[in-house]
Amino acid sequence: MRFTNVLARLLGVAGLATIRGVALDEVRGEIVVSVRLHRRLRSRCGRCGRKCPGYDPGVGRRRWRGLDLGCFKTFLEADSPRVSCPEHGVVVAQVPWAEHGARFTRSFEDLIAWLATECSKAAVSELLRIDWHSVGAIIVRACERVYAGQDRLRGVRRIGIDEISWRRGQRYIIVVLDHDSGRLIWAAAGRDEKTLGRFFDELGEERCKLITHVSADGATWISNVLKARCPKAVRCMDPFHVVKWATEAVDQARRQAWNNARRGKHKQLARDLKGARWVLWKGGEALTARQRATLGWVERTNRPLFTAYLLKEHLRLIFQLPWEAAMDLLIEWLQWAFDCGIEACVELAVKVADHLDEILNTIDWGLSNARLESMNTRLRLITRRSFGFHSPQPLIALAMLSQGAMRPALPGRALPAAA
Fold first, then answer.
1. Crossing angle, helix 239-263 and helix 267-275, to 10 degrees?
2. C-beta of residue 47 within 8 angstroms of C-beta of residue 99
3. Fewer Cβ in 10 A, N or C end of the chain?
4. Which alpha helices (H) appear in 204-238, and where do they start and end?
5. pTM beyond cutoff 0.90
6. What is the C-alpha to C-alpha distance for residues 104 and 134, in angstroms, rounded to an integer?
7. How many helices (H) and strands (E) does the chain have?
8. Residues 251-286: tens digit of each pLDDT
9. Residue 416 DSSP label
10. How sure is the predictor about 3, in pLDDT bands with cuts at 50, 70 and 90?
């Protein structure tokens, strides 16, 4: 086999272009391969691929970074004529080895996408000798290719909705998970009704009617959209967020007791109440012997605060009991919370009563956002690894590639489905 044929196969242009020359620059560590596109593939619109009349030969030749050959960076070089497309106007002609406007070959971008889901940014930048700021656009294009022609929302029946902060300054991304597959199916920047409405717009009116269960927290912007788009779906309140309300109520009662001790000049009592914070937050079954002693001290010195802790623990227990036992305990818990006289706990009881139907659905169906919270933990890791992205789109693409139904494939290998 001729050397040029071998090289064409290595570069992924076999049957697409003819190699006209190879230049090696040992000082810069680069190999530049000059190619000429086959006639049948010329004069196509770079955006839609339609056969179009030529416009002009363009300005100079273009280069695309390809997969390295050994220790050398490799570039493809070809003419860059322009064509006149009836739909897109005058555009640079299409080349089959790269996306329109990209400076990298598809195989190089596929490798970047795979590495970005598996490695840190430092590893990707060091291995491929590419600036991390260039990776964002590559990941977005790779995600579009992986999901091209794929219906991510097909067969969705039970979903979980949550938001995750991706940057300081109240910057959020809404994420939607399919409970049956356990995979991320949709994500978008924002945290409001309009943004979430885009998911249901994409889902379509007919498929919205097929949604049977939705798990989420008690955010108004989620509830309003669900009432309008999926009125018949069973809405489940995520237990994690309900218990979080209770933990915040306990902490509010502790801060009140701490402030009272400070105003009364009881410095040691104030110091001890401050130190009891983590004990009061922790679940009773996980307390150490020393922490149990601290909890016993709280019971002896501040009965209202201990009552708030017991209310929190009993609310946790409700989600762990069978239906009938949970119902009995929930009724008793609401009466106890309303009658306790602790302002923070009364407010908690009002909030639980407002979301009583959703909480009962959670107990009945056992549906929660536990999978979604686990996924959010992995997405936060991706966010930290991807520090340097200045827009949410690359993060969303990376999330879809790492947590979605499809995975990027290594060059030369079949595209794998998610495990």
1. 170
2. no
3. C
4. 205-208, 220-229
5. no
6. 10
7. 17, 12
8. 999 999 999 999 999 999 999 999 999 999 999 899
9. P
10. confident
